[in-house]
From TrEMBL:
Record family assignment: Belongs to the glycosyltransferase 2 family.
The keyword Glycosyltransferase is annotated on this UniProt entry: yes
Keywords: Glycosyltransferase, Transferase
Organism for this UniProt entry: Chitinibacter fontanus
Protein name per its UniProtKB record: Glycosyltransferase
Coiled-coil residue windows: none
Ranges for domain Glycosyltransferase 2-like: 7-134
Single GO MF descriptor: glycosyltransferase activity
InterPro entries to which the protein is assigned, alphabetical: Glyco_trans_2-like (IPR001173), Glycosyltransf_2 (IPR050834), Nucleotide-diphossugar_trans (IPR029044)
Amino acid sequence: MSSALVSFVLPCFNAGQYLQQTLDSIGLQTYTHWECVAIDDGSSDTTLSILQTAAQQDTRFKIISRENRGLIASLNEGIAAASGEWIARIDADDICAPDRLVKQLDYCQMNQVDICGSWVGFIGDRRGEWHTPETDAEVRLALLFNTPIAHPSILARAALLKAHPYPDDAPHAEDYALWCQIAATTSARFANIPEVLLHYRTHPGQVTQAKKAALLITAQRVREQYARTALPVALQPLAAEFAKLAEPSRILNHAEWLWMVDFFSQLLALRPESRGALGEIWLDTLQRSHGVNLLDFSRVLKLALQMPPPKAERKKVLKQSLRLAMSDFVWQKIKP
């Protein structure tokens, strides 16, 4: 069992509504050798008073309070001020499981992992779970499409994050940009524990909800930059087109769907270790493709055999199979 000091880095901006629940979940950790560096980013609500009360009751809570500078500045400032060997991220509206630190520290020690996330369960406006890819190879492959790590779930080596601060030119996609940068330039090992260790709150006030346009632009740029070096050499000339079609919110026409089917087949042939990660990715690509029909069934069956989707996606597989059987035209008529 590790005895290392863990530093929670907790950026806060007008977080009074849910902050106490987050602080309580930190205080209930079964691994007790932690500190929490909380940054009050110029809040105008009760955030600072809640943090001050927590610090009075438990000296492991450290507070930085100053004018508003934004999330990226807060993250980098909190990491720079952290004393721990490990950095644990959490947002001011999320809740972590009591055994989160114990399990992540043990996992990192046993598997020589440098950045470790976990599965997350959704609370608030959304229900369900996000099952992120587990191994380093799967995470690095999934980074070609989108972030495969729940940002507030991570435990990372402090030295790594201090050497690689969050890029200030990636607003609203700072975590995706950082993971791609680290994956492209270091040998750091990624992993996700296949267990829900964080409950992630979704609500209309989140930055990712309010700033979707800026997020898409940033993520598109990051994706293309990463693809130019992370794709197999034979596929790197396709990086720009791939990055455009791989955007998770983009609706594909039938020709673009066929392009992606061919791309998945080539990628699997060149990177057999990508098989596990690609199962969910091609299924999501099918879901956002229009114009598919029964003639696509053989293609989908081949993809399913070569790159099986995870068991948790069985309902989605059945739904998309039904959609192919009746053609997309009919499906769009009855879907509402």
